[in-house]
Write a structure and sequence with these properties.
The protein is of the alpha/beta class and 524 residues long. It is built from 16 helices and 16 strands. Helix 1 packs antiparallel against helix 10, helix 7 packs parallel to helix 8 and helix 15 packs parallel to helix 16. It is globular and about 75 Å long.
Length: 524
């Protein structure tokens, strides 16, 4: 297979296109909404990581979604920027307007093709769906030469009908054909069969990119992705940390490292800068407020930890006995203890460069350095993890509507706790003095007094960034309101301050999410 693609030029048989949908499918996860600045920062990180395509959002979903896709198209260079659309003309036109400024652009349009979806969701006969395939791709081609067409619920679609739809999309001008496992129903054998059949039986299938998009409902997303590649897919749709609707999507870091680690089984090439994987993973966790579970492959904190005596003995003799890849290959570094209260701004910037923050702006650097000095006065030893926590905490909050100013707390066993809180809201400083059942409750009551809201606290958890009694606390807060759920994170050596920062983070995300709407048939 060798052909010329409008955005990638000549496509080699072993070249894989990495299509990241963290900002679209990933953001559809409950609680994972991002504001405009967070999306742009995440898109820039994905570009630095080396992804080939960034699915920046679903422009028709809301004015906010349109603006975020448009801004990413205007500012992020390198990857192809794509917007998702249903087969409706308004969707496609809106997507075309959103991506217009991108130096490399794509429209990704889809329609359901399975009997179940056509009957109950679309209420369309197969022949009508087939007409929509041709019309949607034809219209999308008026905005860009690069059009991707997806058969929603493709793995549960009748094969003969799927082949007809794919052929119609190619004839109409689609340059990428995506067959998603929308509900995570397939097993690897299905993926090999489906992609092999499409490749062999559809005229022109050897002149387009076949794409795979797998959900993880049965825990098979990565396995199904690799199987699809074996069957002929050459574009992999995935997300950082595997986030996405329900059980999530195929995790970019797992797919990429599987290919790197097993070239004998997967002899393919990609453009991902793997040492940037961990940094990108941590940035997403900070922005969304969702920590990666400790035993998560590649980016979990236990991924390269060894506690068993037998394992430790083997590691001391030869690391390859129990590590199939090096920690450094995905961005892990040995903890450094050299930073302290006497360290200067130049040393701090060097440390940030080593930790993957080479693109941090001067304002963010100054704010982070100020917090570092305060932290260094409080802690005996400043670890790399401490610096990552405070920098992320500062950068993510730089454009928030509600900002933390100060907190005083009085607590004990003899009388109710009291908290005096100061916040900045749209540039105006406001304060409240409230009591509660403990210092956290008092601080959260003060928050409600300053910024009235009806959201309920659904989760509150506390963990330590590093070891020791002087370690920074990292708090997670989940707020729910009218079916919407958001998570926020905050870090500080004072647990109550960390809790307030986490609550503010969640509240800002909730304010953003209130304006969002979801069109029908949003999944793909």
């Amino acid at each position: 297979m060798s052909f010329t693609h409008p955005n990638f030029g000549k496509i080699d048989e072993n070249r894989l296109i990495i299509f990241d949908t963290t900002l679209r499918d990933g953001e559809q996860s409950p609680g994972f909404s991002m504001n405009l600045d967070e999306k742009i920062r995440m898109a820039e990180a994905l570009a630095s990581l080396g992804v080939d395509v960034i699915e920046a959002g679903f422009p028709i979903a809301s004015p906010g979604d349109f603006e975020s896709v448009q801004k990413i198209a205007e500012t992020v260079k390198g990857p192809v920027i794509t917007g998702l659309s249903r087969s409706a003309p308004n969707d496609i036109t809106r997507a075309g307007e959103a991506i217009r400024a991108a130096e490399r652009k794509r429209i990704h349009t889809f329609i359901s093709t399975s009997p179940l979806h056509m009957k109950y969701k679309l209420k369309m006969e197969p022949e009508v769906v087939l007409e929509h395939v041709t019309k949607s791709v034809t219209l999308a081609r008026q905005f860009t030469d690069d059009v991707e067409w997806s058969a929603e619920d493709g793995t549960r679609t009748d094969m003969e009908f799927l082949l007809r739809c794919v052929e119609a999309a190619i004839k109409a001008g689609a340059t990428t054909i995506n067959i998603p496992d929308t509900v995570g129903y397939a097993v690897p054998e299905d993926m090999v069969r489906i992609f092999s059949t499409v490749r062999e039986k559809v005229p022109g299938a050897d002149q387009v990119i076949l794409s795979t998009h797998n959900h993880n409902d049965l825990g098979l997303a990565v396995a199904n992705t690799l199987a699809a590649v074996k069957g002929g897919a050459r574009q992999i749709e995935c997300t950082i940390n595997g986030i996405g609707e329900r059980a999530g999507n195929a995790a970019l870091e797992e797919v990429v490292m599987a290919i790197r680690t097993r070239p004998d089984a997967a002899p393919y090439q990609h453009q991902i800068e793997t040492p940037r994987i961990l940094r990108t993973s941590k940035l997403l966790a900070t922005i969304t407020g969702f920590d990666v579970q400790p035993n998560k492959a590649i980016v979990g904190r236990n991924a390269f930890a060894h506690e068993s005596g037998i394992h430790q003995d083997g590691m001391l003799k030869n690391a390859a006995t129990y590590e199939i890849m090096t920690p450094e290959s995905v961005g892990w570094q040995k903890t450094s203890l050299v930073m302290g209260k006497h360290s200067g701004r130049a040393a701090f910037r060097d440390k940030l460069n080593a930790l993957g923050y080479g693109d941090i702006g001067d304002n963010a650097l100054n704010d982070a350095f100020s917090r570092f000095k305060i932290l260094a006065d409080r802690k005996k030893v400043v670890y790399d993890e401490d610096i990552v926590a405070l920098v992320d905490d500062e950068v993510v909050r730089s454009h928030e509507t509600i900002k933390f100013i100060g907190l005083e707390v009085w607590a004990g066993s003899r009388e109710p706790a009291r908290a005096k809180l100061e916040l900045e809201i749209d540039g105006a400083v406001k304060a409240a003095d409230e009591r509660g059942d403990g210092p956290v409750d008092a601080a959260f009551n003060a928050m409600r007094r300053i910024f009235p809201h009806t959201a309920e606290l659904a989760l509150f958890s506390v963990g330590a960034v590093t070891e020791g009694t002087d370690a920074q606390a990292r708090c997670t807060v989940r707020l729910t309101e009218e079916g919407k759920s958001v998570d926020g994170q905050g870090a500080d050596t004072d647990t109550i301050v960390a809790a307030v920062r986490a609550y503010i983070h969640a509240l800002n995300k909730l304010v953003t999410k209130r304006a969002r709407t979801a069109p029908e048939a949003m999944s793909a």
